[in-house]
């Protein structure tokens, strides 16, 4: 499989460190609000990437962080009169609900920043010992001039590094490389943790370095995010991790391009800013939204528009109609499987396209060509029950990656309290607290639902 590597700026053979196993870190949500569809473009593409790696037989260990402390969160929680935990729990639950609506495979670990403060402090200490930091007014900064590789990922000119300029903000201006904060001294009224440098909190960038290395090791295979994460966030992650360990942090970096709406940058002031919830409330099917999010090559800008929705709807119904026509045949016709070799060739071409840096339009082109051939065979009266089964099997395989090629059965709507119990059970299982997990399963059962563990994560079904 060949994948573009942002670090080398080339499409290269993807070779995991350990044959057959992949460590994958995807930058997760900052839980200060509902995630918008631009965020979900990244999560949906990462889901497609993971599913394709798995379809090719690789065992993926997927870690996605939950950033539950940073500038915006602190400001908004204070404005809402909520504790950090109350405030972020609300939006973390909303994120999981949205991710389920789009059928994103759950990560294996969702580390929360506030639960990994000791790991972050330890990493800052290592950086301090290695001479990469300085202190000022109770805060600790990373001296980017001390790390010769700084700028390699984002392609910044090392000569543009402004020695001594520094920023305290978690996010800062593009193309303005500056010393960045690792540990921020507490300001009045802000939440804080004790540290060797006094009370304070971690900067955003150190969160991902500490949690990625805790769950995937000091060197791992694959790290992804939106193109906005490349600088400064990922550049800083590299400086922090490699500055501390002296090891290459990540072998392969991948970034997806922006999502725009009707040809324009999505923004609240233009009135074209959508959360996933906004779209669902307008009656758009989650299946169609997922199709649009994964249907554009990840390195191309995705234009989310009415026209794209319409076109997507027509494309999905073409697939559905062909499957239905064949399924109807399946109950009456019986004959030789004339289409089977054609289906086999389509399957090979479909996966070969995905092996080529996730060429989704090539893969879907193969699927649509097959749909045309299937329809033509039905028209000629040459399709059989065996052909229907072969086509169904192709759709099932292709859908393990795309997740949209077969109609979605509506998921039983469970009340919010029951969904909260389900999330708590997930957390208990992640913490290997089996007694608690069993207790929560019984509570869900008492509320009238049974849990079915599926590939897309646990689903609730009303008790018969
Ligand atoms: Zn991150």
Attribute tags:
Four Helix Bundle (Hemerythrin (Met), subunit A); 464 residues; 5-stranded mixed sheet; single chain; alpha/beta; binds zinc ion; 14 helices; Rossmann fold
Question: How does this structure look, described?
Answer:
- There is one protein chain.
- This protein has helices at 37-55, 71-80, 84-101, 117-129, 204-216, 230-245, 276-281, 286-295, 306-330, 340-355, 360-379, 385-402, 416-430, 434-446; strands at residues 2-5, 10-13, 21-26, 59-64, 133-136, 139-142, 166-167, 179-185, 200-202, 220-226, 250-256, 259-261, 264-265, 302-304, 449-454, 457-462.
- The chain is globular, with a radius of gyration of 24 Å.
- The model has no long low-confidence stretch (mean pLDDT 92).
- The chain has 14 helices and 16 strands.
- Strands 5, 6, 7, 8 and 9 form a five-stranded mixed β-sheet that branches. A four-stranded parallel β-sheet has the order 4-3-10-11, sandwiched between helices.
- Helix 9 (306-330) packs across helix 11.
- A hairpin with a 2-residue loop joins strand 12 (259-261) and strand 13.
- Among the domains are: 16-128 and 204-261, HUPs (Rossmann fold), CATH 3.40.50; 306-408, Four Helix Bundle (Hemerythrin (Met), subunit A) (Up-down Bundle); 416-462.
- By secondary structure, the protein is α/β, with parallel strands linked by helices.
- The two termini are 45 Å apart.
- The chain binds zinc ion (ZN).
- The site of zinc ion has 3 residues, from loops.
């Amino acid at each position: 499989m060949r994948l573009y590597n942002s670090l080398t700026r080339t499409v290269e053979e993807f070779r995991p460190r350990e044959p057959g196993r992949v460590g994958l870190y995807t930058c997760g949500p900052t839980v200060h609000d509902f995630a918008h569809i631009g965020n979900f473009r990244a999560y949906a593409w990462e889901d497609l990437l993971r599913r394709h790696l798995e379809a090719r037989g690789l065992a993926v260990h997927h870690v996605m962080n939950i950033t539950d402390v940073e500038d915006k969160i602190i400001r908004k929680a204070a404005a809402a009169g909520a504790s950090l935990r109350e405030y972020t729990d609300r939006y973390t639950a909303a994120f999981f609900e949205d991710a389920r609506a789009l059928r994103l495979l759950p990560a294996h670990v969702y580390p929360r920043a506030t639960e990994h403060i000791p790991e972050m402090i330890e990493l800052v200490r290592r950086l301090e010992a290695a001479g990469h930091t300085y202190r000022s007014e109770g805060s600790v900064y990373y001296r980017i001039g001390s790390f010769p590789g700084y700028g390699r990922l984002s392609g910044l000119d090392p000569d543009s590094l402004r020695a001594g300029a520094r920023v305290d903000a978690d996010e800062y201006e593009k193309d303005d490389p500056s010393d960045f904060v690792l540990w921020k001294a507490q300001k009045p009224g802000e939440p804080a943790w004790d540290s060797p440098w006094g009370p304070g909190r971690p900067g955003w960038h150190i969160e991902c370095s500490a949690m990625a290395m805790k769950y995937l090791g000091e060197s791992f295979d694959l790290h992804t995010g939106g193109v906005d994460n490349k600088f400064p966030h990922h550049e800083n992650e590299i400086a922090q991790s490699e500055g501390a360990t002296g090891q290459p942090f990540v072998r392969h970096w991948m970034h997806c391009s922006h999502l725009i709406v009707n040809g324009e940058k999505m923004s609240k002031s233009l009135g074209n800013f959508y959360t996933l919830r906004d779209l669902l409330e307008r009656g758009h099917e989650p299946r169609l939204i997922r199709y649009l999010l994964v249907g554009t090559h990840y390195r191309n800008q995705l234009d989310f528009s009415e026209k794209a929705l319409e076109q997507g709807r027509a494309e999905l119904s073409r697939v559905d109609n062909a499957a239905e026509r064949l399924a109807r045949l399946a109950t009456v016709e019986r004959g030789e499987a004339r289409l089977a070799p054609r289906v086999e060739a389509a399957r090979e071409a479909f996966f070969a396209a995905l092996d080529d840096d996730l060429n989704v339009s090539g893969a879907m082109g193969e699927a649509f060509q097959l749909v045309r051939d299937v329809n033509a065979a039905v028209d000629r009266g040459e399709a059989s029950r065996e052909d229907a089964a072969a086509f169904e099997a192709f759709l099932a395989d292709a859908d393990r990656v795309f997740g949209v090629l077969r109609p979605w059965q509506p998921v039983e709507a469970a009340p919010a309290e029951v969904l909260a119990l389900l999330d708590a059970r997930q957390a208990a299982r992640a913490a290997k607290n089996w007694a608690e997990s069993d207790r929560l399963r019984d509570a869900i059962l008492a509320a009238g639902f049974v849990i079915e563990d599926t590939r897309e994560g646990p689903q609730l079904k009303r008790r018969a």
